[in-house]
Amino acid sequence: MSSTSTRPIELIPTVQILGTPISTLDMEQTLEQLQKWIREDTPRLVITADATALVIAEEKPRFQEVLHKASLITADSVGVIWAMKRAGVKSPSKVSGVEIVDRLCEISSRTGIKLYFIGSEPGITDRAAEKMRLKYPGVNIVGTHHGFFPADSDEVVAQEIARTQPDVIFAAMGMPRQEEFILRTMEITRAKIGMGVGGSFDVFSGKTKRAPKLLQALRLEWLWRLMLNPSKISKVKSLPKFVRLILTRS
User: Less Cβ around it within 10 Å: N or C end of the chain?
Assistant: First the structure.
């Protein structure tokens, strides 16, 4: 794993949830911070964390180490928002990976920042990029690559990415694989920001539909995802453990 250091997360206002510093910035503030970092020359890891991610960190110290190398960790689930409220944050905001990708694509169409999509199944990432080009004419997606390659090919893939000189790499390879890929290769790619985005490309490509607005408003997107893909039951099963950990440490 790369030894490249990132700037301390303490520069961002945070709240500690199970030992992990979660950003209290809202979406607009987060986007402003990301654009500021894009103008600088320090590679940074950004993580969008749901309850499952924090449970994984409890069970796997190696992933906890990854979390603490991030320059920014956002709240990407109802469970984390609930925990933030219990910790005293008055009005925490959900800052999801799928929305960050969408918003940065729009910003790229106006500013020219260079985006790279990597992950998901062969064909899905290309389709996601094409959909975003149609949605935001002029978006500067400089390259794509599927996520079905072994870890021992990371450096080869990173060298391919580096030739496109991206500002931002969005990696949809599952957690913690996507974060470990970003950290391991950031000295090669030299992207200003590397961010894991889970199933975002499945959504943008049309393979997976986002929850209806009503379910989003009711914070029931997790239920929608479970209905569409019952194999995600393992993520749902982590929620009771997350709640128990929060309650026992409050």
Answer: C
